[in-house]
Each structure stands twice: as C-alpha cells, then as structure tokens.
Amino acid sequence: MRITIPTTVILTLAVASTVYAAPAAPTHQLEKRGWFTDKLKDLFTKAIKSLECGACVAALVGAKDISYLNKNWVLDAAAGMCTDFKVMPKDVCHGLVYSQGPVIVNALMQASLLSGDGKFMCHQILGACPSQGVQSGIVSFPKSKPANAVAPAHSGQTVDILHLSDWHVDDKYLPGAEADCNRPLCCRKYDDSPVTPKRKASSWGDYKCDSPVKLGEDLLKFVPKVANVSFSILTGDVPPHDVWLQNRESVIREEDAAYKTMAAGLSTNLYPTIGNHEAGPTNLFPTKATGGDIQWLYDSLADDWSRWLPADAVNSVKNYGAYTVSPAPGLRIISMNNNFCYTMNFYLYGKTKDYDPNGELKWLVAQLQAAEDAGERVSSSATRPTLLPSSSLVTPYTDINPGFRIYKVDTKSWNVFDAETYVADMNLAPSWDATGATPNWHLEYSARQAYGAYVPVAPTAPLSASWWHNVTSTFETNQQAFQNYWTFRGKSANRLPACTAANGCAKETICNLRAGKSSDACSEIHFSVKRDDEHGENMSAAAADPTGLHSLYKRADPKPWNKKLCGLGAQFNL
Ligand SMILES: *[C@@H]1O[C@H](CO)[C@@H](O)[C@H](O)[C@H]1NC(C)=O
Ligand SMILES: *[C@@H]1O[C@H](CO)[C@@H](O)[C@H](O)[C@H]1NC(C)=O
Ligand SMILES: *[C@@H]1O[C@H](CO)[C@@H](O)[C@H](O)[C@H]1NC(C)=O
Ligand SMILES: *[C@@H]1O[C@H](CO)[C@@H](O)[C@H](O)[C@H]1NC(C)=O
User: What is the per-residue DSSP string for 309-350?
Assistant: First the structure.
C-alpha cells in the first residue's frame, strides 16, 4: 500500500478564513470566480509556508465556505496551484484534483471543522496539528471469552503459503519508453514523452515503474521451484500507480486482466483482499453514511474472485468487500476491507464520529466469534499487515526489488514458523535483455535465520508476536540488526535513503512496526522549509524561493518512513 495523493491537492483546498474579512467581493460571476480562486491560492501559499495548526484549520474553514458558493472554484484553485508551481505536469494535476477533490470538498461540507474535525484532518493528512486521539466506540463479542483456552499443539509439519502483495502490474508498460520521466509513473508513452529517453525502460521493469505483465508471469512461474504452495494470499492493490487516471472503468479492466493472469499462473486457490488502489478513483471508498457508490467494485471483484471462493464468501464480498474462508480444517482466513480506516480515504473525514463505518468491525467480531465457536485458528489478511514489514510486493515501484514471500505454517496450530522472502535484482534488468536471460529470482532472507541471529528461537517454537516484539526491541539497541531490517525493507535494492538513529528515522520506523492503528501516531513531520515567521529562517534560501513551495517539494531527503505529506518526496524523488 502506497500513499499517493499529493499534499498540494489537499492543502490547496486550505485557505484562511480571512476571505470574509476582505473587502467586498466583485459582483460579476467571472470576476468573482477569479477573485475567490486568487484568494484561495494566496492563502494556500501562506498556509503551506507556516504549517501551523490554526492556519491549517482556518484554511479548511475558508475552503468550506467557498464550496457553498461554488465547489468548482475550490477545485479550480487547487488545479491552478498544482500547475503554477510545477509540482506535476498539468494532466496529472488536473486528473488528481478533479477526481479526488470533489470528495474532499464534500467531506469539508459535512465536517464540523471547528469542533475537532478540522484539527483531526490537519493532523492526519498534514501533521500540522497535534494528534487528536481517536474517539473510540465498543463493538462487543456476543459471548464472553472462553475460560482456560489453550492453543493447539503443533503438528511439527509445515505447509507453504504464498504471499503476494501490491501486484500493480501495468499493462500499459512499454519497453524502451522513458524510465526517468516527470510523472508519478514512468515506462509508458505520454503525449509529451521525449523521442530519445534519458533512460530506456527494460522489458522486465524499472525502479520508477510498475511491473510489466511478463514480470508478474515470470514470478508466478518461479514459485513452484522453491515451494509446494498449499494456497496463496494477495493483500491488495492490483491496478498500477497512474492514480491521476484511475476510474471505475480502468479499475474493472485491470482487475479482470490481473486475476486472469494470476489464475493462469497459480495452481492453487488465491485468497485476495481489497486494497486502497482497488477503488476508482484511488483510495475513495464511500460508506453508507457518506453517499457515493462502491457496489460496482464489490460486484466486479466478487466475479473475479469466484474462481477461488465458495458461494457464501462471494456473497459476502458483494456486501462488505470482505469475506471469510476455511482453506483447511481448523484454519479460517478473514479477509478484511481495511479501507474504512485508511487516512487517505477522504470520504471518512465528513463522518469522523462513525467509529465503525458500514459495520465492518461488527462483521469482523461476528466472524471471530463463529471461528471461536468452531475451534478454528484465525489468520487475518488485510491490506496493511503489521506483523512483518510488507516485503511481498510484486512491484518494484519505487526503488525496491520485486518479490514474493513464502510462509511456512504448521498444519495443526497454524502458527507461522518462517517467512522466506524472494526477490529479483531489478538493477540487472538491462543485462537480462542483453543476454536473453530471465529475472534472477532468489532467496533474499529467511526471517527465522536473519532475526533469529539476534533473538534466538527454539526449533519447536513459532515466530510469535512476542518474538517479533523482541526483534523490534533489538532494533532499538543493535544498529546492525536495524540496518539489516532496513536493507530487507528495500528488498535489498539498497536504494532507500539512510535510516538511522541519528536522523530520527529508526525511532519512527520501530514505532510504526509496533503500531497497530492509524491513531498510533508515530511519525512527526519533517519539513526542510523553515517557518517564515520565526527565528532560524535562512534568508538566502527564502529569497531564492519566495513561495517556499519549491523547496518543500524539493526536500532533498525524501523520508519514506514519513507517512505525512503523502510520501511525496519519496514518490517523486524530486
Ligand atoms: C461554478 O464554477 C464553474 C467554473 O469553475 C462554472 O462553470 C459553473 O457554472 C459555476 N456554477 C454555478 C452554479 O455558478
Ligand atoms: C514438493 O514436494 C515434492 C513431494 O514431496 C518434493 O519432491 C519436492 O522437492 C517439493 N518441492 C519443493 C520446491 O519443495
Ligand atoms: C521476549 O523477551 C522477554 C524479555 O527478555 C522474554 O522473557 C521472552 O521470553 C522473549 N520472548 C520470545 C518469544 O523471544
Ligand atoms: C542557507 O541557504 C543557502 C541556499 O540554500 C545555503 O547555501 C546555506 O548554506 C544556508 N545557510 C545556512 C546557515 O543554513
């Protein structure tokens, strides 16, 4: 799961409340529009430079007020800002603003900005306000916790489970196209693509691109060489990262094609999960309370998944985008739809008091109770697994090697005994083309071996949650252990920026490894632009960049661990 909506789109909607303290607005419709959009752009510039909580909230209030006059004016201002400051090419700016923007504007109109929603948004999306905490509710289990429950013994036999994530195969991938382009996704032909690329896309993929179809196919072909897979799971995100182009039609077409490819390449059942990229536009999952339609997606996926799922699960997908299935006696998989707790699902900001949108948690509890009654072990599959760093990503996008993971799971206790991650070295792709070779899939590491070196685990013991916790404790005290982790996190491509105790990254990363909830706010925002109203201002830098925007987006040290600012620096590598 990658966060992909640039901050400009959001912050551009941010304008200060001074709009209404200003002299009387012009009366002609066209003049009015110009006056308000200019005001919005102005105030946005100020808001993004100060990045103060009060300014951010006031900005949202201003945007909300203008929305009542004409929603399009807010969007026009946002699109104008995005292009004026050359954050992205015009087509990308417009695509993003006019697909994501209407939902943000509607959320603003539904929100109680001055009763906490404003601060909440400013914290979650920008990190401009302190963490607000989350208003929680209680979803009770129908029955009380069983007394003296004992975990089942291990059989001592393991089976192999294939874990795929972030398929992101791009059927518009074009070998020979520009791999170092100015858009969020490269290796495609765009209207203004140069005749002679700076770097040609190989036929197997590139670090700035999603996977070509044949990379996905080759991966699936390789799996049986290293594992006897009993069944497979896919934790979401099938469409490519052309988020400014994604809509209902593109999603349906891409999902249909991808699941066909997977069905052809896998000899086992696949149990998929809905990720944030499954929506069209990306991330936007309406709830019953917000208005908006997502039934088209559930119906389409239910169809794609009916190859592998029993009828009751297919039915559940149509209702919840979630389902349960028992792939083997004693084991139950619960495939959740986590998009109702995703911070970039802008629909949620209009209904922040709804702690269980669409009753997904209520549904989950019912499934857990049923599994408990049946004496089953449960494995939950969601698009943001927290137990292991998500390194089963098929896509090399961005700056990581493509890969997959094999879990070794006990056939009776269903505990995980090992997680083996396989990768191919994307930097070698040009040489595969030159010699007619295929990707060099190979074992990157076994979690048991790699981390067992630091936190010993008995041969008869599984990789338990408590063991993983101890591994994260080692990361705090042993720099080498943490650096090994960081290398694995980049899938051994060694292209991620340094993450150390000294630059604050290690602490945040370890916090995030342990955090199970969006409200466990680990990350602090790191701006390279200093406030213009406070001491410490570097005047020469400020003079060279009067708006401050350029340097903000040009942060020289993209911090992939920083979830705020939407990972923009990391994504665009500006
Ligand atoms: C709102 O603004 C757009 C231009 O941004 C214009 O086309 C439209 O007619 C306006 N709507 C109303 C109701 O004034
Ligand atoms: C799969 O199982 C068969 C039969 O037990 C065995 O011969 C083969 O080596 C196994 N393959 C892998 C990759 O483990
Ligand atoms: C984790 O560490 C604690 C404290 O050192 C220890 O008691 C416990 O046995 C460890 N658990 C595992 C599974 O390593
Ligand atoms: C101020 O910014 C300029 C231009 O970016 C830079 O060369 C200089 O080293 C900075 N000075 C300080 C004290 O940070």
Answer: S-HHHHHHHHHHS-EEEEEETTEEEEE--GGGG-TT-GGGGG
